[in-house]
Amino acid sequence: MNIIDKFHNWRRKQRWNKQYRKGRWDNLRKPIEADRYKTIINYITTHAKQQPSVLDLGAGEGVLNEYMDADLFSYFLGMDFSDVSIEKAKAKKFPKAEFVTADIHTYTPSQKFDVIIFNEAFYYVHDSEKQNVLDRMLHHLNADGILIVSIYREGIGCWEYFEKLQQLDFTVVKTDEEKTYWKIGAYKV
Description:
This protein has helices at residues 3-21, 31-47, 63-67, 83-91, 130-139, and strands spanning 53-57, 75-80, 97-101, 113-119, 141-152, 166-174, 181-188. It is an alpha/beta fold. It has one domain (3-188): Rossmann fold (3-Layer(aba) Sandwich), CATH 3.40.50. The protein has a 7-stranded mixed beta sheet with strand order 3-2-1-4-5-7-6.
């Protein structure tokens, strides 16, 4: 990213922290989101090995963990751009889970994972960095691992990055609200 993009990225972080402080993202716990989270968990139980290690990119306050039984995974690492959201997630003391604040543009995991989830995060990656971020994460996916991608509505400029991967599953999670839906895919390298 050039210097202007880095500045806009910094401003975005400030905005996310302010929004998490004010409760702007509390809506992620509303029932309308439940089927999306359940679909992600279903993809884990259907396509990943038993008790996988999980990396959740875009973990926010750890809402996915609130839906997951700790027996489902061996280790869970949640990463988010917002320090405020990560502090809220850490305060919940989820078993077998850790949370880190990092910028997805530069974040390099310290280990490989069985499941990596772009949890409503890939469309926030700067266009010039999308392929680099995807390649870096795929490098940290175990050989038999799966990648799960959840994107709100169409995700224009995102899905084409996953076309070269083997698609295991794909669904559109619809709601009663006309313009509220998610596309969720599971992939292997």
